[in-house]
Amino acid sequence: PPVILLLHEAIPQHFWCIPFSVDGNPVPSIRWLFNGTALAEGPYIHTRIVEYEHNSTVLHGCLQLNRPTHVNNGNYTLLVRNPLGFAARSVQGRFMENPFTPGTCGHLSPPRAGRRDPVGPQPEPRPYRHQVSVAVALAVFACLFLSIMLIVLNKCGRRSKFGI
After folding, report:
1. Angle in degrees, CA 117, 118, 122, rounded to 5
2. DSSP assignment of 92-147, as one string?
3. Does residue 143 share a domain with residue 85?
4. Structural domain tally of the chain?
5. Residue 149 structural domain
6. What separation in angstroms does the CA of 93 have from each of 48, 82, 138?
7. CATH number, residue 40
8. Residue-wise pLDDT tens digits, 115-135
9. pTM of the full predicted structure?
10. How far is residue 105's CA from residue 113's CA, in Å, rounded to a whole number?
């Protein structure tokens, strides 16, 4: 009967990979469940056998996920089956935090009792206001300095009419 030798948490590569190794003779079929329901494989999520050893019954593979988001977080169960039996093992997949949960950017919390919230979005604080004004002042000073230098060189750098 088939045996799941290895099932690890997802690792980032050029894509995300949930690595696995299975053994069985005859060669077992491989299916995946996502949060208890059948995982529909397609161009962005699919099973790939990475290494096939000649004269061996062990299959090394990977469930590839191309650019998974918080929607893909959950429980991934590997199911292997052949005529002699089946095996199953699960692993948690965490790819990205949910950007819409409380306490993260983009979430507006409901107003608390006794607190008055102004209507509409509030402007972001300007932590670099002082640095920006210093940079602008330095740029203006540099432009004025270069302009004065060009005028001085133009006036004083002329050849004298009497220097023949």
Report:
1. 110
2. EE-----TTSTTSTT-PPPPPTT-PPPSSPPPPP-TTHHHHHHHHHHHHHHHHHHH
3. no
4. 2
5. 130-158
6. 17, 26, 51
7. 2.60.40.10
8. 444 455 555 555 667 778 888
9. 0.59
10. 22
